[in-house]
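dumping this here so i dont lose it
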């Protein structure tokens, strides 16, 4: 972009030159970095400034910063990211749109003529999608209904306008999936606002206009819901094209000229990459002065639909053990999706690292997307309503029964964090003859106490609101404590002492109830840790508890060190 040599731009140049000297000095003080085989490798794009990408790679306790040139893909290590350029340009536009006081997710087109917004009524479980033409003072709407939580709240972007105001794109889940819709702005009508669906049967994440006639969007694959794909959609020809595969499901798209920067999964973790041309260029990696080994060399991952449930199976490529312990992994959330390899969030990825350690010693791992999970449509997500402790456990047990019928296993161990921790405890207490044991990490014990703290959350929606006589049966159905007498083996419970999401009182309550029932248990409280763990030692503690429970050989395992 050419601003000309105004007095302001000359001032900026002079001052940036002074700052850049400090930045350059900091660059050459940092050597190349080599990571050990057990290091976590999580790359994320922190910001883009012109043709410069600021990228962070991190484990739990270490962080590495890199300043990268998008045009050349070259990177240098920096102690701090370089200062953001000061850009002065005339961005004034006459905004013709007025949004109502109760509107949310407001967006204005580049000319200021059009506006997009939602009005949501949680009481009526409804929302209205509105498009306003400020020049003509006309509004076009489509009404939508949901019987669950408003899942649009979870979307990164809801609407985008074409750069020339020729069309608008937005996402909605009224079709049953988070779908992409495109509306022409040249011949608007309220009826057409409800039409124009581009995607069907897949979940859409981020999307952008690359130009007036091209939309790029991220969506998963009908055949493999864990493969998130970057598509281009031509508004003139109505044709779609695959540009890249294996993106992270929370990937945000960034455009620099014809280049697109996004984050994808690799055999080393998550890493930002460059698509050199959105019309069909190549994928280019940033040339980082850092190296890390692949964690997938010895593990085979496969998508499996078992008993109607989406799962990921992890097996060792090299291990020749005939009978394997089966570890069933249940993610938190539940409005999350498990991952094909390491999860896109490092807060979940640390558990994937633990599972990799277990697989390397002969375990099978099944990562399960139980009812309430993300990425497989609204029906699966909403099926958890009024079904906590019943439909979720049934789904897990159906997977276990189907898998063990066709595979020899040496015990079934259910492990999870947060909601998954609750579900692990509920599964073992409901089916002690089929589940050998369970490990709960920052899990829920008492839903009544927790929902009285939350007051209004997606979890309150599961039970139809706060505890009362009306939903008493749902809390009884979800209870763990009522089934503790059935337990056969000591359960393992790990809890962050400073957890502000699931307070430690939940774990202590469980321990006391187990003691009252004369059941042996292993409760570990980890000082200074919140709901998301931040210390390598904490992850090692969890890993060792899993190895102890499953009786796996812990030699040279559970040694995460960043």
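and the seq i came up w/
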């Amino acid at each position: 972009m050419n601003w000309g040599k105004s007095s302001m731009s000359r001032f900026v140049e002079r001052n940036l030159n002074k700052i850049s000297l400090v930045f350059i000095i900091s660059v050459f003080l940092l050597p190349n970095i080599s990571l050990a085989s057990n290091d976590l490798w999580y790359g994320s794009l922190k910001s883009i400034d012109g043709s410069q990408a600021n990228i962070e790679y991190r484990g739990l306790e270490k962080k590495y910063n890199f300043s990268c040139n998008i045009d050349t893909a070259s990177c240098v290590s920096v102690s701090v990211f370089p200062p953001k350029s000061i850009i002065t340009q005339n961005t004034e536009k006459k905004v013709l749109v007025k949004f109502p006081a109760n509107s949310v997710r407001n967006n204005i087109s580049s000319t200021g003529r059009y506006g997009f917004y939602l009005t949501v009524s949680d009481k009526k479980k409804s929302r209205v999608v509105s498009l306003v033409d400020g020049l003509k003072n006309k509004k076009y709407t489509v009404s939508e209904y949901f019987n669950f939580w408003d899942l649009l709240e979870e979307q990164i972007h809801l609407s985008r306008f074409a750069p020339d105001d020729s069309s608008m794109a937005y996402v909605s889940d009224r079709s049953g999936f988070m779908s992409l819709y495109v509306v022409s702005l040249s011949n608007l009508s309220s009826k057409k606002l409800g039409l124009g669906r581009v995607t069907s049967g897949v979940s859409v994440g981020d999307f952008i206009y690359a130009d007036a006639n091209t939309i790029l969007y991220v969506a998963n694959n009908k055949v493999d819901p864990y493969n998130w794909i970057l598509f281009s959609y031509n508004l003139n020809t109505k044709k779609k094209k695959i540009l890249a595969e294996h993106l992270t499901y929370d990937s945000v798209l960034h455009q620099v000229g014809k280049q697109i920067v996004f984050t994808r999964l690799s055999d080393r973790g998550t890493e930002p990459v460059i698509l050199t041309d959105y019309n069909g260029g190549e994928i280019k990696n940033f040339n980082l002065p850092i190296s890390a080994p692949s964690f997938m060399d010895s593990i085979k991952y496969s998508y499996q639909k078992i008993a109607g449930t989406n799962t990921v199976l992890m097996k060792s490529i090299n291990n020749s053990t005939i009978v394997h312990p089966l570890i069933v992994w249940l993610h938190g959330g539940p409005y999350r999706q498990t991952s094909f390899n390491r999860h896109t969030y490092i807060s979940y990825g640390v558990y994937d690292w633990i599972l990799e350690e277990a697989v390397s010693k002969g375990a099978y791992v099944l990562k399960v997307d139980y009812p309430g999970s993300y990425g497989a449509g609204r029906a699966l997500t909403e099926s958890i309503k009024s079904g906590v402790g019943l439909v979720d456990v049934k789904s897990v047990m159906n997977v276990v029964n189907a898998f063990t019928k066709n595979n020899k296993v040496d015990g079934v161990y259910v492990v999870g964090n947060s909601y998954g921790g609750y579900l692990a405890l509920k599964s073992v207490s409901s089916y002690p003859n089929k589940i050998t044991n369970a490990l709960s990490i920052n899990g829920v014990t008492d839903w009544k106490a927790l929902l009285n703290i939350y007051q209004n959350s997606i979890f309150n929606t599961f039970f139809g609101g706060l505890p009362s006589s009306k939903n008493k049966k749902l809390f009884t159905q979800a209870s763990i404590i009522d089934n503790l007498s059935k337990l056969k083996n000591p359960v393992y419970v790990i809890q962050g002492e400073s957890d502000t999401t699931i307070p430690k009182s939940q774990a202590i309550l469980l321990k006391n109830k187990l003691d009252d029932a004369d059941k042996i248990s292993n409760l570990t409280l980890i000082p200074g840790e919140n709901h998301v763990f931040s210390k390598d030692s904490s992850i090692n503690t969890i890993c060792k508890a899993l190895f102890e429970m499953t009786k796996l050989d812990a030699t040279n395992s559970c040694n995460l060190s960043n």
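The first strand starts at residue 33 and ends at 34.
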